[in-house]
UniProtKB/TrEMBL annotation:
Protein name per its UniProtKB record: Protein transport protein YOS1
TM ranges: 57-79
Signal peptide: 1-22
Any single biological process term in GO: protein transport
Keyword annotations: Membrane, Protein transport, Signal, Transmembrane, Transmembrane helix, Transport
UniProt xrefs under Pfam families: Yos1
Record's keyword annotation contains Transport: yes
GO CC, alphabetical: membrane
InterPro entries: Yos1
UniProt subcellular location: Membrane
Organism: Schizosaccharomyces japonicus (strain yFS275 / FY16936)
Record has Cytoplasm as a keyword: no
Family listed: Belongs to the YOS1 family.
Amino acid sequence: MFNIRTPLFVCLLLLNAVAILSEDRFLGRLGLSHRSDFGFGESKDTVKSRVLNLIRAIRTVMTFPLIGINAIVIVYKLILG
């Protein structure tokens, strides 16, 4: 059954997936690791660089908030099912 919680849980799962991506194992194979990034001073505004910057920002900023949000969701699911 579709309700307002379903898209929120999907977003949470996607954020968790992005937060745990390994640059060396997964992103390196796709050419999205920091080793394949452009040098300092060369700011190429490509889709690849934007995706890499988004992944890095999510991993940097959302690490600790995701821990708290995941704990809240786990408690919510345990109590209310």
